[in-house]
Amino acid sequence: MKKILFNQRGSSLIEIIVATGVMALVLTSIIAGLTLSLKTNSESEYRSQATKRAQEAMEVFRRERTLLGWEAFAAALRDNTYYCFDELTAPFEAFSVGACGSSDTIVISGQEFIREAEVTVDETDPTSPQIRVKMTMSWTTNDNVKDVEIIQVFRKWD
């Protein structure tokens, strides 16, 4: 007759397999969470840098509006719609006219960005002319194009 032991010591093979499976599942979840966190963190960094650089370029338009005065500022922008800002230039005459090409990039933290301004001059109401500038910073990650847009409307003041 066999004797049944109620106080068995040690683990059975099934218990070890179950424990290993649970540990693997927990570790996989932690690694997936960390990977997602790192990806989100880098996207946040790119978006933050893009916003900062777009604001810097918009400041160039604000500066030129103040230095040139409304009439010269509006006249200078009437003929062109797109400007590429691969670098920030001092005088308005040095603005790079036209849409950005693939070589007109700014490298920030190892990521290539394109900074472009779209300008619309609206003088349909002569008493309230305005210039709308849309500054766009765009970049590509994993074949997805991301962008940040800042819009400023300049109005004539006396």
Provide key terms for this protein.
158 residues, alpha+beta, six-stranded antiparallel beta sheet, rod-shaped
Question: Would you mind describing this structure in some detail?
Answer:
- The chain is of the alpha+beta class and about 160 residues long.
- It has one domain (about 15-155).
- The chain has helices spanning about 15-70, 70-80, and strands at about 80-85, 95, 105-110, 110-120, 130-140, 145-155.
- Strands 1, 2, 3, 4, 5 and 6 form a six-stranded antiparallel sheet that branches.
- The mean pLDDT is about 85.
What is the topological layout?
Elements: H1 13-68, H2 70-78, E1 82-84, E2 96-97, E3 106-108, E4 111-122, E5 130-141, E6 144-155
Antiparallel strand pairs: 1-2, 1-4, 3-4, 4-5, 5-6
Helix pairs in contact: 1-2
Task: Report a brief summary of the structure.
The protein is an alpha+beta fold and 158 residues long.
